[in-house]
Amino acid sequence: MTKKVLIMTQNFYPVIGSAGNRMKNIFQLLNENNIETEVLTTEPAYPNKNMYKNRVFWDDETINRQSHKITRVSLKNSHYDNRLFFYVEIMVRFFMKLWKYRNRNYDYLYVSSPPIFIVFSALLGKHILKSKIILEIRDLWPDSLTGVKTFDNKFIIQVFRWLEKMMYNKADIIVINSEGFRNHIRSKLKNKDKPMIYLPNGPRKSEMVNNFSNDKTFRVVYTGNVGLAQDIDRLKLISKLLDEKNIPFDIIGYGIKLPELKQFIKEKSLKNVNVYEPTTRKKSLEMIKKSDVAIAFLNDEEVFETVLPGKIIDYMSCGTPVIAGVKGIAAKVITENDAGYTFEYEDTESMVAKIEELKNNPEKRKRLSYNCKKAIEDQFLWETNIEKLLKLINN
After folding, report:
1. What is the predicted pLDDT for the residue at 160?
2. Residue 89 dihedral angles phi and psi, to the nearest 5°
3. In the beta sheet, which residues pair with residue 110?
4. Which pTM was predicted?
5. DSSP state of 55
6. Span 250-264, mean pLDDT?
7. What is the dihedral of CA 320, 334, 307, 114, to 10 degrees?
8. Rounded Cα–Cα distance for residues 240 and 230 (Å)
């Protein structure tokens, strides 16, 4: 008998970023493997809803033709008006939809966190729909909240930690996108044998191409969020140092700190630094493939040592060597696969020196590029890794 799954997520196609792309791939692959899968999500709004009025972002016709499987909830509150009210509204509206779905007989509710509030609507819905819960963790919460230093109310944080523990224990299956989360989550579980699978971000086979070439201008790229978890000061400094060395640096960014970065580039008259508006995943990957080195940063907080940023996997998927100011799991993936180089938090000058070294050594770049793609093909292809999830759902 065909299994039925409802994916509950704030981030879904055509929303840009790792989370939206991840949910899109899971939706497509489950349906392709005879799991009847639907989606409950919000209207696209990240990083701003007006950009999705442009049809260029609605570029996947296979999903466009399946709009009957996707329910999009509109919200009155904006994320930027009041974040708490925004998340509570999502929780309430999702629960109201689940109440209407109570006779649909879903076998599983697949719910993705953060935000944690969507999980609570799923936990309530679990009893109404008699469904099991697959809980996906893309970020440790509330640790990531304290890691970006935007919230420090100790009482509220303790309440959040209690909710976090309850969330893990109420789930039937847990999915993680970084191995760095496993021990933390397992330590919170009463049932230490609860199924937990590692399902990393990655590309589809169709996104893998051979692109290495020496016949082009050497370029450096940064893509993705420029927010609180990313180190804006390091990004400013590396922009300045690359400009001084006349190395073109392309930034495809969005996020709360991007205006500050743009202002810095303008004030310093950095002629070799180009900032591009957010665009589709396809176009972002094309720019990464045309680059010779890619950059990643995370703040020097312990919680970020457990994170494997989606941009690093995207860089490797494009065969673009990674220069990263990261620690923990992300550093391990880069170094163990010889896909680039990692540096200490404040060692920006060494990062630039390594970039300059790679500029003058195309053979080394070619070797790193090959290693990037081999690691992706061996460990991170969606078509391969989805089998772990299919096995649990079907059994």
Report:
1. 79
2. -65, -40
3. 7, 134
4. 0.93
5. G
6. 92
7. 30
8. 17
